[in-house]
Design brief:
The complex is a heterodimer of chains A (369) and B (439). With 369 residues, chain A is an alpha/beta fold. In chain A, 37% of the residues lie in helices and 15% in strands. In chain A, the strands form three sheets. In chain A, strands 2-8-7-6-5-3-4 form a seven-stranded mixed beta sheet, sandwiched between helices. Chain A has a four-stranded antiparallel beta sheet with strand order 9-10-13-12. Chain A has a two-stranded parallel sheet with strand order 1-11. In chain B, β15 and β16 form a beta hairpin. Chain B is of the alpha+beta class and 439 residues long. The chains are: A alpha/beta (369), B alpha+beta (439). The interface between A and B is medium-sized, with 35 and 29 residues.
Chain lengths: 369, 439
């Protein structure tokens, strides 16, 4: 049988892109590392799970409805999101996780020869989607663990289409204040799109932390990302969204794949938004307690810590982070080694329940030289 | 890693002897176009001639044969791609005994000439059971050892990818200020280093002082699909050098952190200050040529979470291997292989890489056969007679047929010395030969 000529069929920027290989499922990892239980402290999941109303939606989903297509544009969810954020539902696009809306935006605005600007130590997917779409990704080093606004502005050229800012930043937890974000948006002007990814915004309790959506009226080139994976505990259902000015969203809608968000996700997200049981308050309290506890314990061990906003913190180790990952896996603790974020010898730990935090501390004490 | 910038030309024809002039002319023209000097071009053409005739006669007579010439900038490679029901390339072994006792097998003699004419030999089975036999001829470069002065201790350093001239200066500095055992022989040829980097197979980073002097550097390349091997960081200035070493390593990691490379491997020494960031794999005992105090430590670090792997070994090796996996905290599923009387056909083929400066030879199995024991013994005899005192044998634990070689190696004086994670299809084990007379 003749093999397809992949050299000529596949664009060079796809051929040269290195595919991301996700880690194996938990049971396989537990078998590999010989651990009887596993605390997942690697993906910043919410240990409380989804709000009770969303859990009820998941529990009660009628199996025969599995045969019926969902709303193609998450109609009811957008209505509710519009009401919550005080924007028109037409300004919202819902995707199969925030990862999908990243792809929508890059496809809508960039063509070959264009570039995007973001940071070197931030969420990797902006860079990945750009690179495998044939778009240059300009990654600017962080300054004092935060996005360097001046250097990002200096990296702009006539082919720059989008600037991605992760606020608060994953993994460092640093954030831009309202004033700093406004200054950046003003400096960029209307010639480029600025994406502010607020995946972890619900965890931030600082008063000067900006709600990007509230700035849309002033800055129509602003696009804000949100997710239901973190605070709302719906990571398994893959649902996130973007909000922007009507004209901008109308352009992005052209590259948006409809029907990509399943019905359980839409309905669970809707229920999560309507939660009145104090889910956010409970989660914030848990994160606050865990941060204080873990920070103190890491300090006692002499480990430098970067702990900003978000439900995670970073610890610097006196050994390779990837070796620490393997040693901790043997102890049933799964953390995120940070070499892939260009922070070698650092690990990111999700702030979870007390039992998990104590197990993590005990394991760290056991493995450190 | 960047994809190497190979220029490639291809020739498709049937494997029939009358086409020989077409093939040799094609290779000579391509080699000349790619910048190979006349002598090397003729050697490559000679190897091509012998291999082509062998393929026409005994391997894939009349069948489709693709011949490709690849420009690696510092080398030209000829690749033969074909399908064959059976393969006997015994004559390509460096230790081939086809001329032994005056009983000359002309066909095998031709292959022997071919293998000894070229610098490197490679054989792989590609998708669809297509076989790819590759022979490589490197350009010859002038040796330089210009005495560049030692740079002053820097107040601060930045890291950059050097241009061609700075790559050459880096090579000269490394040649002067780093211990010989810690640097590969190619540093004696700065022009070659420049071409290795320009060709895309290698990348180089240099640490630059505020006075724009090169105060250190590191060079790296993909050893396997998943492992990046690096040499350095080499540090040239006086006084405190930790900052430059750390900056170079951080820049190297940043440049490959978001690639599919799983690990970083150092086989040529590492500054002491960087050792805590790595896992010590072990060291090879010094060769006789290096004398006491020789030998180099090997270091490794993962770049991502360890995905685990399946490895194939005979029962003889499981105790040593389990101990190493436990020490290195690597998750592996060990599959035991055992001969059960099944038939083995054909003749095996090993590649031999020789580093004369270190009196060292590394053997790599390329093709299985029924003669593994005889072929190993023959190679040991041949290489020792050639004055090579350090004999290494690399076994890829991801390839079940390699496991069959392990008892043979152990019966021939080899012992496992080092485990290199993911350096092959799975992990590699380097076996080292110990003479029966050694204590």
């Amino acid at each position: 049988m003749t093999q397809p000529n992949l050299e000529s069929l596949v664009p060079a920027y796809v051929r040269e892109f290195e595919p991301y290989i996700p880690s194996r499922p938990d049971p396989e990892l537990m078998k590999l590392y010989g651990c009887a239980r596993l605390y997942r402290l690697n993906n910043n999941e919410n240990p409380l799970g989804p709000p009770p109303g969303a859990q009820e939606v998941i529990r009660r989903f009628p199996p025969p409805q599995g045969a019926v297509y969902p709303s193609g544009d998450s109609y009811y969810l957008r209505q509710e999101l519009g009401a919550v954020h005080g924007v028109d539902p037409g300004q919202i696009l819902v995707g199969n996780g925030a990862n999908e809306v990243i792809a929508f935006v890059i496809k809508a605005f960039c063509e070959q020869g264009d570039n995007i600007v973001t940071a070197d130590k931030t969420f990797a997917v902006y860079e990945w989607v750009a690179v495998f779409s044939g778009i240059e990704a300009r990654v600017i080093p962080l300054k004092d663990e935060g996005f360097d606004d001046a250097a990002m502005l200096a990296a702009i050229d006539p082919r720059t289409k989008i600037l991605f800012v992760c606020n608060p930043n994953n993994p460092t937890g640093s954030y831009w204040t309202r004033e700093r974000l406004r200054g950046f948006l003003a400096a960029v002007g209307g010639r480029r799109i600025v994406v502010v990814d607020e995946a972890y915004c619900e965890f931030v309790e600082q008063e000067d932390f900006p709600n990007g959506i509230s700035l849309l009226g002033e800055y129509p080139n602003l696009v804000v990302f949100r997710t239901f994976s973190k605070m709302y505990g719906l990571a398994a259902l893959r649902i996130g969204y973007l909000v922007g000015a009507p004209e901008v969203v109308d352009m992005i809608r052209r590259t948006c794949v409809v029907y990509s968000v399943n019905r359980i996700a839409q309905e669970a997200a809707l229920a999560a938004l309507k939660d009145d049981t104090g889910h956010i308050r409970r989660t914030r309290a848990l994160v606050r307690t865990s941060r204080t506890f873990l920070r103190g314990e890491l300090a006692k061990m002499g480990l430098p810590v970067i702990a900003g906003e978000g439900n995670y913190l970073i610890a610097k180790l006196p050994l390779s982070d990837t070796l620490a990952y393997r040693k901790l896996m043997r102890e049933g603790i799964m953390i995120r080694p940070m070499t892939g974020f260009r922070c070698p010898n650092h690990i990111r730990i999700t702030l979870a329940g007390q039992e998990a935090m104590e197990a993590c501390v005990a394991a760290l004490k056991k493995i450190l030289p | 890693m960047h994809e190497p910038r190979h220029g490639t030309v291809q020739l498709h024809l049937e494997a029939r002897a009358p086409f020989l002039p077409v093939v040799t002319q094609f290779v000579e023209s391509a080699a000349s176009l790619f910048g190979l000097a006349r002598t090397e071009s003729l050697k490559l053409s000679l190897a091509t001639e012998e291999i082509f005739l062998h393929l026409c006669g005994a391997v894939c007579a009349g069948e489709q044969l693709e011949t490709a010439c690849q420009d690696g900038l510092y080398y030209t490679r000829v690749l033969f791609r074909f399908h064959a029901p059976q393969l006997n390339l015994k004559g390509l072994n460096i230790a081939s005994d086809s001329a032994k006792d005056g009983q000359c097998d002309l066909d095998e003699m031709g292959l022997m000439i071919a293998s000894r004419s070229v610098d490197r030999l490679h054989l792989t089975e590609e998708k669809g059971h297509r076989i790819c036999l590759a022979v490589t001829m490197e350009k010859v470069y002038p040796r330089f050892s210009e005495q560049l002065p030692r740079p002053a201790a820097p107040a601060g350093v930045s890291v950059e990818e050097p241009d061609r001239e700075r790559v050459k200066r880096f090579a000269l500095l490394a040649g002067r200020f780093s211990p010989e055992r810690d640097r590969p022989p190619f540093f004696a040829y700065p022009g070659k280093v420049a071409d290795m980097v320009a060709g895309g197979e290698y990348r180089c980073l240099t640490a630059i002082s505020q006075k724009r002097e090169i105060v250190g550097g590191i060079i790296f390349s993909g050893r396997s699909e998943r492992i990046v091997q690096f040499h350095g960081p080499y540090l040239f200035s006086e006084g405190e050098q930790i900052a430059a070493a750390d900056a170079l390593l951080t820049a190297l990691i940043a440049s490959i952190a978001r690639t599919k490379a799983l690990g970083l491997l150092s086989l040529a020494g590492l500054p002491k200050a960087l050792e805590p960031q790595f896992e010590h794999l072990g060291s090879l005992p010094p060769s006789t040529a290096e004398g006491p105090g020789g030998g180099v430590s090997f270091f490794f670090r993962h770049l991502h979470e360890d995905p685990g792997a399946e490895v194939w070994v005979p029962a003889d090796l499981t105790v040593w291997l389990t101990g190493e996996y436990d020490r290195l905290v690597l998750a592996r599923q060990i599959r035991t292989v055992q001969a059960m009387g099944e038939t083995r056909l054909g003749a095996s083929l090993f590649a031999a890489e020789i580093v004369r400066e270190r009196a060292e030879a590394t053997l790599r199995p390329l093709w299985p056969g029924a003669d593994l024991a005889a072929n190993v013994a023959r190679h040991v005899r041949y290489l020792q007679a050639d004055g090579l005192t350090t004999l290494l044998f690399e076994i890829d634990l991801g390839l079940p047929w390699h496991a069959e070689l392990i008892p043979v190696l152990m019966a021939n004086g080899f012992t496992p010395a080092l485990l290199l994670p993911f350096a092959g299809q799975a992990d590699l084990v380097i076996f080292q030969h110990h003479d029966a007379t050694e204590s």
